[in-house]
Amino acid sequence: MRLAVLIPVKRFTAAKGRLTGVLADADRAALARWMATRVVDVVAEVPTYVACDDDTVAAWAGERGTQVIWGAGLGLNGAVDDGVERIAAAGFDHVLVTHADLARPAGLLEVVHPGRITLVPDRRHDGTNVMSFPMSTPLRASYGGGSFSRHLAQALGFDEVELEVRSDADLSLDLDTPRDLAHPLIREVLPEWLPTSPANPHR
Question: Is 26 helix (H, G, I), strand (E, B) or coil?
Fold first, then answer.
């Protein structure tokens, strides 16, 4: 199996918009970059591609040793589909697609199994945090509200491949809202410099 990882990364200064009012703009951008760095570092042993349309993100991705797939104006779903197609054209036969805002990404590579589609929903079983699939049974990106049910319906359409829905206490944790910042498993890993971190005496 030739595995590649695809991570779509939004412009850091535009990320985590729902935390406006809780975190200053600079802290939101720094938090987005911190989370994306942790995700990239976890999969560093595997060829990794970052899909983006921002020069700062592209420069950061290059510094982390990843390949950049530029997708200006494609949106999230278009960028992921374009990235999967380019990775397939590069000769890879399996891809792991993951969000960049996972609070606890350590188990990402454990999701990958040859010949199997694996979906990791968020903890509300609404969104899709991680997808792993063979290039022979590619899933079209359908992110947005209710994406998990749409990705699951696609996966069920492939009779010839095994399907796993993985309920993972860590990988189900993304960080989008002020309520997420209060989740005990997320608070354990927040960086000390973040104003809402329990380790930050100035919060």
Answer: helix
